[in-house]
Design goal:
Layout: H1 5-33, H2 41-63, H3 71-91, H4 94-97, H5 102-115, H6 118-125, H7 130-153, H8 162-177, H9 189-204, H10 214-239
Helix pairs in contact: 1-2, 1-3, 2-3, 2-7, 3-5, 3-6, 3-7, 5-9, 7-8, 7-9, 8-10, 9-10
């Protein structure tokens, strides 16, 4: 038996590490360049990004059996860096409250556009994997949680808006307690479409003119769609247990 697969996977990990470091530097520079950022904004964003990067490097050799990291995963990693930036802003919401928030709306729009590219790139390169699919899903989930926290902090909706971001994690916890709910779900365009809608709505809430009651209504609509989607998945899992 040869050790041929080892250097192949190691090569993918090395390229991932190089990209992790590059994007980390770019994230640090972007956060530090914000003249209105708080002193803790850059460290907070880098801490979140570092945690995500360590998970990527740890899981990559197990779930990505390809010789290259791939453009698709690179795009998802870039989205993870952007998401880490919004996580930092969730800890410092006054950064958005005191300044024009249109730049944040543009950033969310860019992350949303990239979300439609990474999977396509991975399939086009023949580098699709369980790792890439899970990585993409986790970045989406954490972005929704960060945006939900920002919306609440800015007073765009009540504390119930946090349920939009927390619902996915509650679903995972329920699966740990009841294994029936941890079974794989079939691919669903409905699920993907609602994810796009919730990110778009939460991003729109960052726009300065969008305030209650309009912002509250939009957040309530997003929550209803997400709750309905999770209820549909729960019903499917119970029926097919």
């Amino acid at each position: 038996m040869t050790d041929a697969p080892v250097p192949v996977l190691a090569g993918a990990r090395r390229s991932a590490l190089a990209l992790v470091l590059l994007l980390g530097l770019l994230l640090a520079a972007a956060l530090a360049a914000l003249p209105f950022a708080m002193p803790s904004t850059t460290p907070a964003g880098l801490a979140v990004y570092t945690a995500a990067a360590l998970l990527v490097l740890d899981r990559l050799p197990i779930y990505h059996p390809h010789p290259r990291f791939g453009l698709g995963n690179g795009i998802t990693l870039a989205r993870a860096a952007g998401t880490a930036g919004f996580a930092a802003l969730a800890l410092e919401p006054q950064v958005l409250a005191e300044r024009d928030g249109w730049w944040a709306v543009a950033a969310v729009t860019a992350l949303l556009a990239l979300d439609g590219v990474d999977g396509w790139a991975a399939r086009r390169e023949g580098l699709a994997s369980a790792f890439g699919a899970r990585f993409d899903m986790e970045v989406d989930a954490f972005l929704v949680l960060a945006l939900s926290a920002i919306a609440f902090s800015l007073g765009k909706a009540g504390p119930w808006v946090l349920a939009i971001g927390l619902m996915r994690y509650a679903f995972v916890l329920a699966g740990m307690l009841w294994p029936v709910l941890a079974a794989p779900l079939p691919r669903s365009r409905r699920r993907s479409g609602i994810c796009v809608v919730e990110v778009a709505v939460l991003g729109l809430l960052l726009a300065p003119p969008v305030a209650p009651p309009v912002s509250t209504g939009l957040a309530a609509l997003a929550l209803a769609l997400v709750a309905g989607s999770f209820a549909t998945d729960l019903w499917w899992l119970v029926r097919h247990r």
